[in-house]
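REQUEST FORM: STRUCTURE PREDICTION
Request ID: SP-0412
Submitted by: Lab K.M.
Chain count: 1
Length (residues): 91
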Amino acid sequence: MLTDGTMPEYLYARTNGVVGLLERLIEDGCTEAITSGTERLTGPLLDSLSLTLADAAGRDAHAGEIPAVPARTRRRRNGASDDHGPTPATA
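STATUS: Completed
RESULT:
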């Protein structure tokens, strides 16, 4: 269920690849699935969960238990095949 279909891409996009956030999302998702009676982790169920570690009880930010989430960066385009036109004639 977590490795089928688009779930791996969803989990990566939702957590930015931060293992601590992934762990928290899965834990909270399992708890919600059990209490709601669905007993299945689905995209809509995980979408309904707020994902913040800042307010997590029992985690110490100063000890590194709350990971820093890296900012998303745009991927640079490859300009190797760009056509810059003819070279200007020198006089």
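NOTES: Residues 43 and 76 are 30 Å apart (CA to CA).
Reviewed by: T.R.
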